[in-house]
Specification:
By secondary structure, the protein is an alpha/beta fold. A nine-stranded mixed sheet has the order 1-2-3-5-4-6-7-13-14, with helices on both faces. A three-stranded antiparallel sheet has the order 8-9-10. It has a two-stranded antiparallel ribbon with strand order 11-12. The protein is about 40% helix and about 15% strand. Pfam families: PHB_depo_C. This is Polyhydroxyalkanoate depolymerase.
């Protein structure tokens, strides 16, 4: 979930309340907050238009002032104003091809499954001839925690040469009509089960951060029912399976606030003219405030550096800044029911490791998992999901054989480095591919039951 958006353990009366009851407690201030934000954005539109005009004027090579320090300073100021006040839309994937076996292969992204709050994207590779190396199907479950699925662009690009990739593309809640109904953590798990059924048995699930819990829960539910469409393996990366392990500043913050405080201060309603008008959400602009405040000094310094790069005419450095912040500042609204239920179940009650996690009123038991291989990946310097929080999944999967499980701790990387960057490409991704190939079923839907359970890896 987003940084700085957790709460403390509620009392017994609070714990008994449903997410719908929680929404009714929203304060008079938070309800119109989104509407005030939209008014502020509208009020800034004329000034952004003036800044755009100023950028065009001082960027024109025919303008003598464009070649002076004075002109470049004004140009930098106009761009910084426009970038710091705009609302960033959903980024493009920008994946048009990949390289398989030394050959460049075109990639086409198409929607193959769709529900109101999620689309399943297939990164279809147009092979001239089938590759000799096996290409296991992989479902990458993107986090529904503020940023768009495109945050995993680097993850997809790295894994695409060796896997047939599918990605969950979560829909911005402000774009979902109120008539489409609610969406909570139970619905999230239902979506995953439906996707597994759509893809058929033998797919490999990779969960990045937040979806580690619902993926583990969905697989547990399916295994308990003997569902033949369970995945062949699941890779959980930097996920909050048990936030009592090595608690981070984020987890400590969760104990400093009450759940009621978040209900009253961060839950608001979507304003007109968005399609989801009157839907109750945790808005993206508040999440962004949380993201930025955690490392505010670093972000301020980055923007000051960009201003200097623009004045000096250092286009390469300025371009890297734009590329990073165009993605980082693109945020989406979360359905309020989902946010509050996840907050309470995962970060406050620690329901899954305590054996109290439920789905549609039924207890979820990871001990039912016997056939789905498990790989957990953590970063040594992860300040979001501390060391041990993801590995805790092995303790819960008590009946999973030893030869179907593995754990890897990547040295010197933080949360983002677990799924992106040079160390992910060089050290983590190859291990994921090897694990997937080692547990790839001979054919779609082939599921051999385990014969005997094995102990979990040493803590």
């Amino acid at each position: 979930m987003a940084i700085g958006v957790f709460g403390a353990v509620p009392d017994a009366g609070e714990a008994a309340r449903t997410p719908t009851d929680m929404l009714e407690a929203a304060s008079v201030f938070s309800r119109p907050l989104y509407w005030m934000f939209e008014m502020g954005q509208a009020a800034l539109d004329p000034f952004r238009a003036m800044a755009d005009a100023g950028r065009l004027y001082y960027r024109n090579p025919a303008n003598p002032l464009a070649h002076t320090d004075f002109g470049r300073t004004l140009l930098a100021g106009f761009e910084m104003f426009e970038r710091t006040t705009r609302r960033y839309g959903k980024p493009d994937w920008r994946i048009e091809d990949t390289t398989v076996g030394g050959t460049k292969v075109p990639v086409r992204i198409e929607t193959v499954w769709e529900k109101p709050f999620c689309r399943l994207l297939h990164f279809e590779r147009a092979f001239a001839r089938p590759p000799r190396r096996p290409q296991p199907r992989m479902l990458i479950v993107a986090p529904l925690s503020g940023h768009y699925a495109t945050l995993l662009r680097g993850t997809v690009e790295t894994l695409l040469p060796n896997h047939d990739i599918y990605v969950t593309d979560w829909v911005d809640a402000r774009m979902v009509r109120l008539a489409e109904g609610r969406f909570d953590l139970d619905d999230y798990i239902d979506y995953l089960i439906e996707i597994f059924h759509f893809l058929g048995g033998g797919v490999h699930a990779l969960a990045v951060c937040q979806p580690a819990v619902p993926v583990l829960a969905a697989v547990s539910v399916m295994e308990a029912k003997g569902d033949p469409d369970v995945p062949a393996s699941m890779v959980l990366m930097g996920g909050p399976i048990d936030t009592r392990e090595s608690p981070t500043a984020v987890n400590d913050f969760a104990q400093a606030r009450g759940l009621d405080w978040f209900r009253r201060n961060v839950i608001t309603t979507v304003p007109w003219p968005h399609a989801g008008v009157m839907r109750e959400v945790y808005p993206g602009f508040l999440q962004l405030h949380g993201f930025m405040s955690m490392n505010l000094e670093r972000h301020l310094q980055a923007h000051a550096d960009m201003f200097r790069h623009l004045v000096k005419g250092d286009g390469d450095s300025a371009s890297k800044h734009r590329e990073f912040y165009d993605e980082y500042l693109s945020v989406m609204d979360l359905p309020a029911e989902y946010y509050l239920q996840t907050l309470q179940s995962v970060f406050i009650d620690h329901a899954l490791p305590r054996g109290a996690f439920t789905h549609r009123g039924e207890t979820v038991d990871p001990g039912a998992i016997r056939n789905v291989a498990l790989l957990t990946v953590e970063g040594e310097n992860d300040d979001i999901s501390g060391v041990g929080q993801t590995r805790a999944a092995h303790k819960l999967c008590t009946n999973l054989p030893e030869d179907k499980r593995a754990h890897y701790l990547q040295p010197t990387v933080g949360h983002y480095g677990v799924f992106n960057g040079s160390r992910f490409r060089a050290e983590i991704a190859p291990r994921i591919s090897d694990f997937v190939l080692s547990h790839n079923w001979p054919k779609k839907g082939h599921n051999q039951p385990a014969e005997a359970p094995g102990p979990a890896p040493d803590a």
